[in-house]
């Protein structure tokens, strides 16, 4: 029985990607070795990672003066690597949720951190609009999508200092003007692949400006010089990323992903806004297309477990809200289909007929 998957990560993956990955696990391009067995120094795997990097650059229209890296360690390791490589005296951060809070904590180990704006005062339910970017900061760090609470910055801000963005949960869901950023990074497991591989897009010339010695594995220059293969990379995960990027390209690229994201998220938000039982949890103008968060109205709060059971019986999985906030969350990543969204919306309406 087909499942309607709304997991926040690892994400739903396209069927063709799963099929191609399963074939490569048994035999990579008829070389007689699994993608899990092949040497990362082999010509077979070099072709895989080269294609993945080329597709990443093509889909986001990345300028020539940028490198694309595929690393291990998750986006959480980048919270440390960024200040290690870039923070000399002071860095500016905008705090929009749990992940930017964690990034700020790591940066404070390396120097002064100026939190120039925060939505913590209202439980991270909006995206700050007014702030001053300090000209003397080494960089500004933003998190474009709040996976846990469900807010999203849907445009590329103008910044007079190096701009760093964690795009873990909205990468490849809309066109991005990469030239406005100095580093874009994120875990691949929410929109473009499985857990185990992290992407980093990094501009030439941003490195080599800090006074401290940087451990080899935490130095971006190490991985740029070695083409992401200083040590053994997550080969099978990179293969799946490559297949996912091929799938995105085949459907029309990130513009088509954005069109679909808008259509799918609008359908769910319309169901929420027209419901007697459900209500959204964040400012409407800042609603995420990727992570749609909602709760039951106060008079129906005791029905939360009933709704989760109701949806599970309809093969809808992954809509339980993050453990820190509760409620419900439908993660509308690229591989989420309109059929999945329609199933969720119907379940919401049927539940309301039964209990409202």
Rounded radius of gyration (Å): 21 Å
Strand order of the largest sheet: 2-10-9-8-5-3-4
Report the mean per-residue pLDDT as an integer: 97
Helix content: 25-40%
Describe the structure.
The chain has 2 domains: 15-251, Type I PLP-dependent aspartate aminotransferase-like (Major domain) (Aspartate Aminotransferase, domain 2); 253-355, Alpha-Beta Complex (Aspartate Aminotransferase, domain 1), CATH 3.90.1150. The two termini are 29 Å apart. The chain is globular and about 60 Å long. The chain has 356 residues and is an alpha/beta fold. The chain has a 7-stranded mixed sheet with strand order 2-10-9-8-5-3-4, sandwiched between helices. A 3-stranded antiparallel sheet has the order 11-12-14, with helices on one face. It is built from 9 helices and 14 strands.
What's the arrangement of secondary structure elements?
Layout: E1 4-5, H1 15-26, H2 43-59, E2 66-71, H3 74-86, E3 90-95, H4 98-107, E4 112-118, E5 140-143, E6 145-146, E7 151-152, E8 163-166, E9 183-187, E10 198-203, H5 220-225, H6 235-251, H7 254-273, E11 278-280, E12 291-296, H8 304-312, E13 316-317, E14 328-331, H9 338-355
Parallel strand pairs: 1-13, 3-4, 3-5, 5-8, 8-9
Antiparallel strand pairs: 2-10, 6-7, 9-10, 11-12, 12-14
Helix pairs in contact: 1-6, 2-6, 3-4, 7-9
């Amino acid at each position: 029985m087909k499942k309607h998957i709304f997991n926040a990560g690892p994400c739903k993956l396209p069927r063709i990607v799963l099929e191609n990955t399963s074939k490569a696990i048994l035999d990579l391009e008829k070389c007689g070795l699994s993608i899990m067995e092949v040497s990362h120094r082999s010509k077979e795997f070099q072709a895989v990672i080269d294609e993945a990097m080329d597709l990443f650059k093509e889909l986001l229209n990345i300028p020539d003066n940028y490198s694309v890296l595929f690393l291990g360690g998750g986006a959480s390791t980048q919270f440390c690597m960024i200040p290690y490589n870039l923070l000399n005296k002071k860095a500016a951060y905008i705090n929009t949720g749990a992940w930017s809070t964690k990034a700020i904590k790591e940066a404070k180990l390396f120097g002064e951190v100026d939190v120039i704006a925060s939505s913590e005062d209202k439980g991270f339910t909006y995206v700050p609009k007014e702030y001053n970017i300090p000209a003397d900061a080494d960089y500004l760090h933003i998190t474009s999508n709040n996976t846990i609470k469900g807010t999203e910055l849907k445009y590329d801000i103008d910044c007079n200092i190096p701009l760093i963005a964690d795009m873990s949960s909205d990468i490849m869901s809309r066109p991005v003007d990469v030239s406005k950023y100095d580093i874009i990074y994120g875990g691949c497991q929410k929109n473009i692949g499985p857990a185990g591989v992290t992407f980093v897009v990094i501009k030439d010339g941003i490195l080599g400006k800090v006074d401290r010695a940087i451990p080899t594995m935490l130095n971006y220059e190490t991985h740029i010089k070695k083409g992401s293969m200083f040590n053994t990379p997550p080969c099978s995960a990179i293969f799946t990323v490559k297949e996912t990027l091929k799938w995105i390209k085949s459907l029309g690229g990130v513009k088509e992903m954005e069109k679909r994201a808008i259509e799918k998220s609008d359908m769910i938000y319309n169901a929420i806004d027209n419901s007697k039982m459900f209500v959204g949890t964040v400012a409407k103008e800042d609603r995420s297309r990727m992570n749609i968060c909602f709760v039951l109205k106060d008079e129906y709060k005791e029905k939360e477990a009933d709704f989760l059971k109701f949806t599970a019986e309809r093969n809808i999985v992954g809509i339980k809200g993050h453990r820190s906030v509760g409620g419900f969350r439908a993660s509308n990543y690229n591989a989420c289909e309109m059929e999945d969204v329609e199933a969720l919306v119907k379940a919401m309406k049927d539940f309301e007929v039964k209990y409202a």
